[in-house]
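Q: I have 442 residues here and want to know how they pack in 3D. Can you give me a structure?
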Amino acid sequence: MTRTYLFQPWSHGVGFGYIGRALTIATELRAAGHRCVFACDAAEGLVARSGFEIATQRGAHSRAVPDMGRRQGSYVSISDLDTAFAIAGYYHRHRVLEDVRSDLETLDEVRPDAVVVDMQPTAAIAARSRGIPLISVGDSDFFRSTDNSWMPWIDGGATVRPYPSCVPAFNAAIEQVGGPTVEHVCDLLRGDLTLVASTPELEAGQEPLPTGDDIRFIGPVFWDPPWTTVADDLRGFGEGRRKVYITLGHGGKSTADQLKPILEACDDPGIAVFLSHGFRGDHAPALPGNVRAGVFTGISAPIGWSDLVVNHGGYSTVLTSLQQGKPQVVIPFMSEQEANGVLFVEGNDAGFVLRRTEPATGNAHYTHRLRYSGLSADGGYDAGEWRLAVEEALGDPRFALGAARAADRMRPWIEGRSFPDLFDRFHGGRLPSAALSTPLEA
């Protein structure tokens, strides 16, 4: 049976992981004969270039523009999902209702059999109000309602949220269009089927996730652009040398000055470097002779090529590096990225976070601590800090062993995974129980 799926990933000034994850799932569904329509695209046209249908663009959330503006280069503290929604203006009732109405118009246009959201709350509200099945995909921290869940190292009694809660505004919109009100913003993302892009082993030691037969782990989901040639570009490069892959994401959060010390630290004849510029290569510093670079290349081939992954802590990059058993050094530019490094990389002894935040005294909520040089008010680093990091990460075998162990634990959750089969079983009411604790059957 052919079905129509409407994909509505989060698109408010963030990275490409949400749209990329949706593209991976949609590609499998399309290959199985289903119609997949997207309600948004990135400014760079990733959805259009991948050949998917795009609904009429409606509202401010129809196009992702992942630049930080004046905050580029600064550490952005987002304490939890509520704060992330507030940054999009969702503590204003008129803004929520405006986007919900846009999403309702898109539902009328597409007439889907199910809506697939990835952190997009107004699309979830619209789907529920029309009684359309809702499939929700997300990082594990989308579904945790604990205080400071994106900054778990900050005391739960403290708050770094500069905005009011979005719950009253969401509930006001829900009351106008119909559907159940919520106690916490996480409740908005609990779908009829909720897919957590992680594994139970990765979540060990954290606050438990909600339970129920409607929520299950599916393992990491990442996307590579179908047009990338990076695997061919890297073939044979760096043979006989230590290989380092550097990616700071799409390029909209970090600056050239922050990339330069990392490249200087790796300017060594015994090291080969591949750098992913993201979409901001025109602002990159001059490259040493041992560096090759590419624009938005995808991550699986460069990670597979490397001995060490230096990255920003993006969810897809961190989990894909673990999946391929590669040690990491994480330099976060947002609190969620730091949490990914602390919980997933350091939690598996697969590397470390170079720059950590910790509670501060006085008016500041936190300060930075670099791994080697200690406290830093602004979190700035130099090439000397990075030389020590690269030497430690490549020289200590426990990080490679920890990454390899993580890869072994993750493998059963990925092998045999089929999104068309999973969605078919959802529509047929045949999902197994104990969904959180067992991998998908092949």
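Q: Anything worth noting?
A: The CA atoms of residues 10 and 341 lie 22 Å apart. The longest helix spans residues 93-110.
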